[in-house]
Records
---
Amino acid sequence: MTEIYLVRHGQSDNNALAEHLRVPDPGLTEIGEQQATALAAWFASHAIDYLYCSPFLRSLETVRPLAELRQLPVRVRANLFELGGCYSGHEAGKKRGEPGMGKNQLRSGYPTWDIDTSIGEAGWWGREYETWEQGKARAAGVAQWLASDLATTSGTHLLVIHADFKRLLLEALFSDAQLETLQIDLAEIPLYNTGISCLELGPDGWLLREFNSTQHLPSKWVT
């Protein structure tokens, strides 16, 4: 059986700041670090075979404790980033693309990890702000990758991704009718930091075994 876990990153500095104070690539808050440690402890007794994350610092630092605990390399994939990409500015029409970390910077911080070959020294982003339509198309591509590659590779795969992209990805994997049957309104439900969702590809399509779970966290760390 192949299981795929979709996990939102831990609380970032931006999550704890007013919008006008946010930076392009924030790290984790102290709570975010505790969430990441708790996530690793939770999966200590679970079989995890493959780890993936986006090239954002908050995603990298969320998966690090688990990677170190399980002695697993992480595959840093350039297409798992948050909707919009790496950018500065938060007013409509004034969001400007930023480069993000480059290949050598990522290799310096995470020397044993598998860095996506599409990431160059100039940075993994360096484009205009990604639109919702572009993000939706990217999510559809990732959904296809999950079905064609990950779901056909035996084992357990864990991806550390982002809230808005997780919404787009779940919308690409499940129809509106399926989500309604599951009583999941992605527009209304907050996706918690390090919230865990578990998928399995069955003969009739995707099954959602777990959604947005925070059972690994004490209530004071649920954000």
Note: The first strand starts at residue 2 and ends at 8.
---
Amino acid sequence: MGKLHDVLTPELQDWLRAQHVFFVATAPLAGDGLVNCSPKGLDSFRVLGPREVAYLDLTGSGVETIAHARENGRIVFLFCAFEGPPKIVRLHGRASVVMPSSAEWERLRPSFPEHAGARAIVRAELTRISDSCGYGVPHFTFAGERDTLPRSCEAKGEPALARYRAEKNARSLDGLPGLPELDDGA
């Protein structure tokens, strides 16, 4: 049976920290827009307070979560227990995007591990915290983090990453503005 929580209790925070993967889902306001769901890992999730979370967003081929957060702020995080007792946790909230040029970045960035290619921090004020059984989620054993993205970003270096972001992260698949520093005014 599912349960609503007023806050992220210490026990729930510990459980969230123990998960190796989580999913982030967002959608544009347009009814025909593409809903996005992205898996995340690499120790990129942090609990900032009883009703506030964030994750370190790394350079990737798309910019959907950032674009949707900038447009309307709606976000949901999904965590599943792949090991241990079954459990699913959903964190609904209002997202904002923290860019490296901001004072907020300087405050939050030390909370996360160093990653070449870090492009933003997506922060969310939680409006709904719930858990459910997770009985249908299979067991998986964690074998380790993939190093493909970190190695790729390190090999490219910051100038090449900036060019990549300019090419791939200026607009979402639906044409919404992506990274703020790449806004072209369209």
Note: The radius of gyration is 17 Å.
---
Amino acid sequence: MAIYRYEFEKPLAEIEQRLQEMERSGARQKQPDVVKGLEQQLEQLKRRIYGGLTPWQRVQLARHPLRPYTLDYIAALMTDFIPIRGDRLFGDDRAMVGGIAKIEGRPCMVIGHQKGRDTKENLMRNFGSAHPEGYRKAMRLIRMAEKYRIPVCIFIDTPGAYPGIGAEERGQAHSIAYNIREMARIRTPIFICVIGEGGSGGALGVGIGDWVCMLENSYYSVISPEGCAAILWRDRARAPDAAEALRLTSSDLLRFGIIDEAIEEPLGGAHVDAEIVAQRLRASWLRFIKLASTWPTEVMLQRRYERIRRIGAFEERPIVASAPEAQN
């Protein structure tokens, strides 16, 4: 399968094509110095390109068609996965997957958004945009985890909750708001990782927990860059400017204290070496579980509440009336 390249990655493709041609022609053995020079040039170019990515370029990598999705990480990280379907009210939303699994032999409840690899699967998965029944299914599984006292692992990867008429008629806003409230008081540890797109309420509907991490080239924002550009400038082409203004990258959000950890990706993105990304995710999960085991339940809930309250910055000042107003 050909590797999909964005415009800013095109210089890499040229060198890789030359190396492939030399490989096919047998020139690798005949001209080892030339090959070595090209490989060094390729590595330096990768470090220059991926070491200075703009926010918009990171958004593009977060949407890469070969990027690992929730089911890929479940297969790489977990064993004995048993999927659970349906919200017991309307139906099964295939944009939201979940079930019971084991990590390192310990049971957990895993939930996440799921996109498709081709047009047919994307239509089935609704491009990772969940309906109300998807969020109700997620809450059903979270409550099951609470009942059986097992931790919850959530993978976020959605451009946003589905905004269609049917979803709104079935209570999209209510289901997201309900999940936010209830997840704040679930009495079992909740681990969350943004693995790709973390868009708006679609992400927040399963985004309240005790530890929130992001992969390096994912994004987490109140709105997509295109949506923000359409509102502010009435021009979706200004999405790169919006991405810069939104401060939606993992490094920005770590600095603001909105997330707890940014997980490094290989040069080029998670799709370049999904195995090493899965290993780093596993290490983050194990650190969290070890830490969470030291928290009494009430302490855990208080910490969760406080981390939510710390998001954002504000200042309170007393209102002081001016002299004429004071006389009146």
Note: The mean pLDDT is 90.
